[in-house]
Each structure stands twice: as C-alpha cells, then as structure tokens.
Specification:
With 673 residues, the chain is an alpha+beta fold. 23% of the residues lie in helices and 36% in strands. Strands 5, 8, 9, 10, 11, 12, 13, 15, 16, 17 and 28 form an 11-stranded mixed β-sheet that branches. The protein is rod-shaped, with a radius of gyration of 57 Å.
Length: 673
C-alpha cells in the first residue's frame, strides 16, 4: 500500500500579533521520519536548522552542515529482540541545511545539495555537499519476501529541497540528480544452470535418437531389414549427431541485459533501475506528490525484464536450431554373419548275393542185421532200411543186409540277388553375410538428400543373394527422420522450448509479475514519492499555518515499517495559499557556455547556473547565535489533516494487475514429410 498524500487547504486563521508584525519561521532537515519505530528527528546528531523571527528582529539565519557519523552508534530495536544499526539502513553523505527568517514575514528553508546561502541546484554545487543518500530497504522487509526479492536499495543523488514563504503564500521546489532502485530476484538468477539443464535434456534426446532402437537408428533399419530378412538378422546401427549446443549459446549466457533505464544480470538476479531514465530523463519537474512506483512504472520495469528473458529463450532456441542444422551426422551400420548350410544327402544302392537254404537229400548203403521175426515182414524191413540193396545174406532168420538209406540235411541249394540302398550326408561350408554402411553429412544436407560421403556394401549368403539396395534410399529415410525428430512439432527443438519455458521463462514471469512476486512487494509495500507538498497546522512552539516541501518520501509497509523524508523544508506561519514558485532567482556559479533562462527574474551567477536559489545582499544578513529548535519537537497535524491522510491510505493497484507473458512457444519451420 502506498501512502497517497494530498494538499489539505485550511481556511486562514486570524492573524496573530506576531503575524501582523511580519513574524516568520523556517525549518530544514535532511533526514526525518521513522524507521522501525524510531523517530529520526530524535536521533542526536542528525539535527535540524530553525530560524524564527517575531517580526521585530533582524534577519535570522541558521546554517548547519549535517553530519551523520552518529548513525553508526544508533541501534534500532526490532520485534523479537533483533537489533539493527541505523547506518545499515541509511547511508547519507555530508549535506548542508539552511534556514532564514525575516521580519517582513518572508522565510526561506533549504537542505540537501545546497550552497552555504541555501541556493540549490545539481549543476552548481561542484565540490560542495553531495546530498546523496542510500536507503537499504531490504533491511526493512520481513523474511517472508526473501524468496521473492532481496537486496532492495534506493540511491538518491544530489537531492535537495527548498521552501519560500511570505505573509500570505508559500512555494516549494526540489532537485534530484538521479534515483536508482536496485534489487535481486531469485526468479531471474542462475541463468547458466537453467539453460544447461535444458541443453542437457536435448543432448540426452539426441543420444537416444541415434541408438540402434532409436528413431534415427530405426530409419536405417527400415531400409535394411527387408533386405536382411533372408538371413534373419539385423545390422548394428549407430547414428551420432555431433552438435556443440553449449558453444552455440555461451555468449548469450555471459551477456549483460537491459540498457539505459533497466539493467539486470541473469546470473546473479540483480536488477538496477535508473528511475530518471525510465521516466524520460526528468526527475526535477514532476508534479507535486508524484508517485514513482506507479503501476505503469513497475510494469515497465518488470515486463521489460520478462520480455527480455523470453527473447533470450527465443535466441537460445534459434542458436540451438542453427547448431543442429549445421551439426555433423555419422551413420554406421555393420553386420558380419555366418549362416550354416544344411548337409547334402545322396542315395547309394548296392546289389547283394543272398544264398537260398533248402533240404539236401543224400543216400548211403547201410549194413543192418536181419532179425528172424521180421525177415518176412517186408513192410517193416522196407520201412526201416528204405529198401534192400544187394540182397540179403545169411539165413532166413538172421544175417545182414545192405540197405540204401536216404539222409536229409539243410544247406545252400542256390543263390539270389537283393539291392540295398542308404542315404549318405555330406557337410557344406557356412555362408557369410556382411553389411558395411557409412554415411556422413550435415543435418540440413541429409534432410535435403545429400551427404558428404556415403557407402552401402552388402553381401548376402556369400553373394548368392542379389540385393537392389541403394545408398540414396538410406539417405532419404534418414533425412525424413531427422527433420521429424528434430524440427517438427513434438521434436527435439520443441522439447527445448518447453524446457526453457518451464525452467527459465515461467519462473521469471511468476516471480516478477505473479500474485506473490516482486510486483507485489513494489506495488503494495514500497512507495517513492517526489516533490511532496503539504499544508500543515502547527500547534507547537510556533503556531500557525505552515507549508512543507519534501524532495523525496520513501514509505515501507504503508509507512508502518518506515517513512523516510529526504530533504524537507518548512516555512510559515502565515501560509494561506500555495503557489507555483516558477523560476525566481539564480545564484549558482554555473558551468558557462549556456544562455540565461528567460523565466528567471534575476541572475546572480553565470547563465547556466541552476534556476533556483536565494540571492543575499552582501552584509545585509545579521547572523545571530540563536538556538536551533523545532516546532515543539515536531510538526503537529490538525485533526482534520490526520483524518484526511488516513482516508488517503489506499491500494495503488487492483489484484491481478499484471501482464504475464502468454503463449510463449516459438513456431519453427518444418519440412513436409
């Protein structure tokens, strides 16, 4: 939440005796406000200068060069017992403070980068006070924002403010040489590792594509396998894409990004915003109560960074694609196979002589004894002897007789011929099949059908099988596969885009512009206002209507954590109206070589001196040794003024008012397959 301050116009009060006599008051302080509950006005050594005139005194002038050495010894006590040296939060250079009050009701106060006489102007201080200030806002943010934003600092260069008043009106002016806002965001840090992770994924995909079972390897197998079907085997295929993707993007990873207004380092995540350049080179003529960190300014800062990150991702993709198209592709397909042949078979027949076995009958004479009782029995005798050979010798009742006896035996009675056949096997030698394919070329060349070198030597089954394979068929198949797997939608380049989106672009968009992001912190927790002009009613030691000019007001946490006023000048107590100071006087020494500003009514220095200042007539001031005091310790607001300010604490932006980069997905050219 940013604190929106306005000018509260209060009806003039009745003039007091002092006012009618020309009473005047001037008050200047370079650093005021509160930090973590500590009122900077109460810090000894910071100091203020006050000049007060009751209307009857000579001109009262107070000068007090501000020294901030005391800051190092001042400790701010935070909740939880944490102690923080004030110097860690505020680092200011040596500056001047000036207050002047005249008896005619005129008053003048100035602080910051001013001269001894209160004249202000960046170009005219030369070797004088610097008026610089550094605020470490990161120290004022709680740890809950550490994952979103760190190292938040604001540097103001040569800042000064002045206020002029008279009996009825007042005006104010300021100068600010430069304003630089710095912070770091983890969302845009570690560029190298994020890109390397994405490239590693691509390298892995390229390696997988080229394996024997990968897409590119299969594109070679698709041509070879139908030919090698006769041997029932496949070749060992390897495809290597030699792409130096890291070398292609190295220069992008070491580049500094942003120019002019916003510079950032994608390795460390640091961002430096030149607010002056961002606002068109003008910080010194802004309208009263101008908020620097508006929605438009924050969007310009953060959208510019996210667009640069997205453009960087595009550049990485472009370079990787070019590197892939120019990369060398080596294809190797090998096969060395022995195929065993079936044994040959031959029928051989042999004729074999086979003996015939039968009965063989032979006869022989056998002498037998003739028995009496059987001599006459011819049948018996004939049966026993098989017949009588040569008659019977001896008597009728005895003797011998030769008988022809038949004898039957088994034996070879002849021969026959039989043919016997058998199968005789003979072993045949193995047949060798070889494949020797080698293709070398660039990715683009192969996609277009050309290779640097190419050969395809194939011999199947010892050359007994003829093939019609040509190397052109292999190149054509490989080229189509390269184009599809690398460059078509869903290919390697698309996967790189997705990886960069996931690891680089989306974290930057979310971390800078999301619901809990850098944008959230800058919009809702930090306010930087320039040229803060306010009408006040003082009820302190000097009472009356006052006008305050503050060059810069920084608020953290809607002012609850810290509100720091840088270069504040107050005049009064007779202010009834606030007018535009225009360009009234010029008192600086200038740098020469220019022309006088026509709006200046008086020029006390050279033509190019700053057109704001106070010309004091030499010897006309009476430097009285009056004590420095403030308006009863601090300026007091009327009830109406407080109510008005509280009512003006509003949110600058509605929820979700950010522009996330949408649709980041580059379309890369693809070939028709």
């Amino acid at each position: 939440m940013a604190l929106i301050s306005g000018i509260t116009f209060i009806a003039p009060v009745a003039a007091s005796a002092e006012e009618s006599n020309g009473a005047s008051y001037a008050y200047a302080e370079f650093l005021s406000g509160n930090v973590l509950g500590t009122n900077l006005g109460d810090v000894a050594g910071l100091g203020q200068v006050v000049a007060s005139n009751d209307g009857s005194q000579p001109r009262q002038v107070q000068r007090d060069p501000l020294t901030v050495d005391v800051l190092g010894a001042t400790v701010l006590h935070q909740p939880g017992g944490v102690q923080l040296p004030l110097l860690d939060v505020v680092d200011a250079g040596v500056v001047n403070q000036y207050a002047q009050a005249d008896k005619n009701g005129e008053s003048f106060a100035a602080t910051g980068a001013i001269q001894d006489d209160g004249g202000i102007g960046v170009g005219s201080v030369g070797s004088g006070p610097a008026g610089d200030l550094t605020l470490d806002l990161d120290r004022l943010l709680t740890n809950e924002f550490a994952s979103v934003l760190t190292d938040l600092t604001l540097e103001l260069g040569a800042v000064a403010a002045r206020a002029d008043g008279n009996m009825t009106s007042a005006s104010g002016d300021y100068t600010l040489a430069d304003a630089t806002l710095s912070f770091s965001s983890p969302a845009i840090s570690k560029l190298t590792s994020k890109v390397n992770n994405a490239l590693s994924s691509v390298d892995g995909k390229l390696a997988n594509l080229g394996t024997d079972n990968g897409v590119l390897g299969n594109s070679i197998d698709d041509v070879l396998d139908p030919v090698l079907g006769v041997v029932g085997s496949s070749a060992d295929v390897k495809v290597v894409i030699d792409a130096d993707l890291q070398g292609a993007v190295d220069s992008l990873l070491t580049s500094k990004y942003g120019s002019g207004a916003v510079r950032f380092d994608l390795e460390t995540g640091s961002v430096v915003v030149d607010l002056e350049a961002l606002l068109g080179g003008e910080l010194n003529n802004l309208a009263p109560n101008t908020e620097l960190l508006t929605d438009a300014v924050i969007n310009k800062i953060l959208n510019g960074i996210t667009e640069t990150v997205a453009d960087l991702a595009d550049d990485i993709v472009d370079r990787v694609e070019v590197a892939l198209r120019n990369s060398r592709v080596s294809v190797s397909a090998k096969l060395n196979l022995l195929t065993a042949q079936k044994d040959s078979e031959k029928k051989e027949c042999v004729d074999t002589k086979i003996p015939i076995i039968g009965d063989i009958i032979t006869e022989k004479l056998v002498t037998v004894d003739i028995l009496d009782e059987v001599v006459g029995d011819e049948g018996l005798l004939g049966g026993l002897l098989g017949g009588v050979v040569g008659g019977v010798t001896g008597g009728a009742t005895g003797g011998t007789k030769q008988v022809l006896q038949k004898v039957v035996t088994q034996g070879v009675i002849g021969h026959t011929t039989k043919t016997v056949c058998s199968i005789v096997k003979s072993a045949l030698p193995d047949l060798r099949s070889t494949v020797d394919v080698s293709i070398v070329g660039t990715v683009d060349g192969l996609i277009n059908g050309t290779a640097t070198t190419a050969k395809a030597n194939i011999s199947l089954l010892g050359g007994t099988v003829k093939t019609n394979l040509t190397v052109d068929a292999l190149i054509s198949s490989l080229g189509k596969s390269l184009n599809t797997s690398l460059f078509s939608n869903g290919g390697v380049v698309t996967s790189l885009v997705n990886s960069l989106n996931t690891g680089l672009v989306n974290p930057a968009v979310t971390g800078l512009l999301g619901d809990s992001s850098v944008a959230t912190v800058l919009r809702n927790l930090v306010s930087i206002k320039i040229n803060v002009q306010e009408r006040l009613t003082s009820t302190g030691t000097v009472k009356g209507e006052m006008f305050s000019e503050t060059a810069v007001r920084v608020a953290v946490g809607s002012g609850n954590v810290a509100t720091v006023n840088v270069a504040r000048a107050v005049v009064g107590p007779n202010v009834q109206t606030v007018v535009d100071p225009g360009c009234t006087q010029n008192c600086g020494p200038g740098t020469g070589g220019g022309t006088e500003d026509p709006d200046c009514t008086e020029n006390c220095g050279s033509p190019t001196a700053a057109c704001v200042g106070s010309c004091l007539v030499s010897g006309s001031e009476d430097l009285l040794d009056l004590p420095t005091y403030a308006l009863g310790g601090q300026l007091a607001y009327t009830g109406a003024g407080v109510a008005t300010l509280i009512a003006l604490i509003v949110a600058l932006l509605a929820a979700g008012a950010y522009f996330a980069r949408q649709g980041y997905l580059r379309t890369h050219p693809t070939s028709e397959l």
